[in-house]
Every structure is written in structure tokens, then in C-alpha cells.
Amino acid sequence: MNLNRAVFLDRDGVINVDLDYAHRPEEIRFVDGIFDLGRFLVQKGFLLFIITNQSGIARGYYTEREFWKLMRWMCSIFETEKAPIQKVFFCPYHPKKGVGKYKRDSECRKPNPGMILKAEKRFHLDLSRSILIGDQESDVLAGERAGVGLSCLLYNQNKTYSRTTPKDRFGSLDEIH
């Protein structure tokens, strides 16, 4: 069986500018180059996925319903831009700051690899030939733990990183392709 190659995109900080718990279309500003990168990767035969921790749900800032409404809107824009998203995987839990049923750790919460492993099974992916693009070290670690072939860190000067090396870091999406 031929296995598919995938690109796993973190949402906040990679697809859209991270504006702290954005959950409505009017709060979204897409990162420069995201649609060009998406088109390029699709043309090269990759399937695109979004993998995102959503602690705003865990903290009670917005609901899963509001999250999905925003994601349908975002995915429709990717579709229009000829960079279709195959599936969105998200983790609504937070082990310390969650409220009620959302206060727990989860195998799906990055740096754990659960979202990536779910995608692998459902879409018959070859993770060793796949790519992860994130803006947090927890994204990169999730990719490594899942066996993703290349994990890229979209570097933000305002953050402190401890474990990634310069070859892992990119200053913009344009540097990746």
C-alpha cells in the first residue's frame, strides 16, 4: 500500500498570527505566506492537516462549537486558495488551567503525539516522509515523538527556546519552501 505524505500545521502562530485565544473570524490575521506554502506543498503531493492545542476551550473562554465555526471558515479559505485542509485535529484540554471536564492531561495535547498518530491511522500516512511546522517547542517535540521526518520551528524573536538548534528554525514561512 502506498502511504501518503503529510504536513502538520500548528494553527496559532503558523497559520494565523497568535492573538491569544482567537475564536472569531474577525480576530484572525493570516500569517504572510501561509497560502503560498500550502499550495506549494499540495502541488508536491502532501496532504495538509491542522493540529492545535486549544486551551481557550479548557479555560472556558470559548466553546467547542465556536471553535468549529471558526475552523470551518478557515478551512473554506484554504480550499478557495487551492490548499485544502484534510482534517483539523485539536486538543481542548489543559492539565492545570482547564475547567470541569477539560481539566486533564491528554495524549492528544502537544507535546504528546496523539493528534499526529490519529491522523496517521485515519489517512494512512508515512510519518517518516512527513513534515510538521510549529511555533512552539512543544510542536516540534510532538513531531519527534510521533516519528515525523522533519519538524520545523517558525521562530519568534519574542519567545525563548531551549532545545531547538538553528537548523530547526525558520524566521518566516517563505524560508521553508
What does this structure look like?
The protein has a single domain (5-175), classed as Rossmann fold, CATH 3.40.50. 29% of the residues lie in helices and 18% in strands. The protein is built from 5 helices and 6 strands; from the N terminus they run E-H-E-H-H-E-H-E-H-E-E. The protein has a 6-stranded parallel beta sheet, sandwiched between helices. The longest helix is centred in the middle third of the chain and has 17 residues, at 64-80. It is globular. The two termini are 28 Å apart.
What is the gist of this entry?
The chain has about 180 residues and is of the alpha/beta class. It has helices at about 35-45, 55-60, 65-80, 115-125, 135-145, and strands at about 5-10, 45-55, 85-90, 130-135, 150-155, 170. The protein has one domain (about 5-175): HAD superfamily/HAD-like (Rossmann fold), CATH 3.40.50.
Count of the domains: 1
Strand order of the largest sheet: 3-2-1-4-5-6
Query: Would you tell me which CATH topology applies?
Result: Rossmann fold
Helix content: 25-40%
Unreliable stretches: none
The major pleated sheet works out as: 6 strands, parallel
What is the CATH class name?
Alpha Beta
Q: What oligomerization state is this entry in?
A: single chain
SSE string, helices as H and strands as E: EHEHHEHEHEE
Beta strands, count: 6
Give the DSSP E fraction (strand runs of 2 or more residues). 15-25%
